[in-house]
Amino acid sequence: MDSLKAFTDNYNKNDRVKIMNRDWDRVIMIKATDVESLHTLTLKKGQLSLKEGHSEDPDLTVISDSETLADIFYGDITPTEPYNDGTLRIMGAEDDIIRLDFISLLIWGE
Amino acid sequence: MKLRLKRVLTLRTVIATSAGLTLASSTFVAAVQVANFVLGDTAWIAILVGGALCFLAAACFSELNGLLPSAAGIRLYFNRAFNEQVSLTVSILYMLVVIVGVIGAESYIISTILNEAFPALPPYAWIVIMLVLVTGMNIRGIKIAGIFQDLITYGLMASIVIISLVALFKVNFQLSAPYTPGGATGIINAVALGVFLFVGFEWVTPLAEEVTQIKLISKGMMISIGILSVIYAVFTVAMTALVPKEVLAASPAPQILFARAAMGSTGAAWMIAVSLAATITTFNAGLISVSRFMYASAREHVLPAIFSKLSMKYFTPWVSILTLFAIGLTVSAIILTTHRYLTLVKLAAAMESIVYTMAGLAVISLRRRMPGRPRPYLLKGGNIVPAITTLVFVVLAAAVMIEDPWTMVVLAIALLACLVYVNTAVPYMKKKHQARKPQSRRRPVRAAEGVEGRK
């Protein structure tokens, strides 16, 4: 939860990212596989909000173990590596997956 | 909890995507090559056998895709089944061969067709126009997908069937020796090249994350191979029944000769439109897939970081797309000068056979490595199907390379280059990235050891 909060706070502090995503309204569900943890990130008109619990019909669903999720949302690792070795699973359209990765890159850098 | 997504793809679109990726202008040229390896109008036998073999490969991909549903596709399957180095080497080689093979062969064929129809512009000018168009579409993030993809693919298939039936009607459905294909060598080579007709059917597996029922992907692949087998068989037989094989084989655009013979100038114009649509959809899909692969590879530091640059406006990997544009222009110029487009067709057929061989091996390996993991699609009969797939495609890859030694030489050089790259450049880039990484992690350290608790 702390990593998602850090991600949300850093996103909302970044005006450039907010402007870029003002037309990209998406619901992203984050599910941990090893602990009971389900959160929803909602992006609406460029603003990102976080809530606990699941969402009906998310656009993207991010699934991994809690350690990997924390590393990703703190920006300590790029999502590509766990994605390519199967540790991370993202369900949704490919373009949305790239956009999410790009947001992470803009918030945290390389 | 059952996972649901807002936007999900239907079976109709999965079939259209799978079939659409295989339908290209070079398909018609490959079909004539298949016909040339066998006697009379018997190409249909080789094509149906090729389709049946691709069914085996599709079954292997279905099990892999169900086990590891990811847009990363073979990169992930081979990583888990073999190791990171094998996965990376094969993935880079595959992308390289596909982009060089598809752009090189397609651009040669389509530019010849357009130059014949509109001689005012030289062939290379057509290539530049097409590549600029598709590159622009890619940078703008315009995808030929969904209903548009359905319309194009089903329209292409219907056009091919109609023109073929008109041609067969013209020859009163009389075929020359339709059941005597000749010697075994000819048949093996015909089947090996016949596999090329289906190249790309498995590129639908990255859609695994856009469907809610994973079995839709397997079903879509199988149906698409079935439909394409019949369409290609009818089309190839109609071509050789109406136009002599020597005439077809001497042309880089046999489909136009055939359509003109079947329906006059209307047929030729129709076939030009069909070829143009087939090439643009293939270019577009190829550029999208390979540029996204380059972007993801750059993000994991196996390609230079510059390839991960995204357009701030369209969120597309513009550096990767422009690099592919430059590669496309170079390859096309080489092929236009050397006229060796058939080598590229055979190169792609051999590479595809190698990937199918590895898919069979990956199924066997993952059954040992991940025995307990759920498999929504499980091949029955133990390891028989994956073992047959492996064996058959090894033979087919060898047949293509023995028949055209240039294919073997080019593939061997490309493999060597990829191996050297993966073993020298990749470790260097990863090391460089590690050194540049901030020493302290952003994530606070666990409470007991001084760090954050679990999420």
Structure description:
The complex is a heterodimer of chains A (110) and B (455). By secondary structure, chain A is an alpha+beta fold. Chain A has a single domain, classed as Nonspecific Lipid-transfer Protein, Chain A. Chain A has 5 helices and 5 strands. In chain A, a hairpin with a 2-residue loop joins strand 2 and strand 3. In chain A, helix 1 runs parallel beside helix 3 (66-73). Chain A is globular and about 35 Å long. The mean pLDDT of chain A is 89. Chain B is an all-alpha fold and 455 residues long. Chain B has one domain (11-433): Amino acid/polyamine transporter I. Chain B has 15 helices and no strands. In chain B, helix 5 runs antiparallel to helix 13 and helix 8 (184-196) crosses helix 13. At the A-B interface, helix 1, helix 3, helix 4, strand 5 and helix 5 of A face helix 4 and helix 11 of B.
Estimate what percentage of residues of chain B fall within beta strands. Answer: under 5%
Radius of gyration of chain B: 23 Å
* Largest interface, Cβ cutoff 8 Å: A-B, 47 and 42 residues
- Give the CATH class of chain A: Alpha Beta
Shape estimate of chain A: globular
Fraction of helical residues of chain B? over 70%
Annotated CATH topology of chain A: Nonspecific Lipid-transfer Protein, Chain A
The number of helical runs of chain B is 15
Q: The CATH topology of chain B, please?
A: Amino acid/polyamine transporter I
Proportion of strand residues of chain A: 25-35%
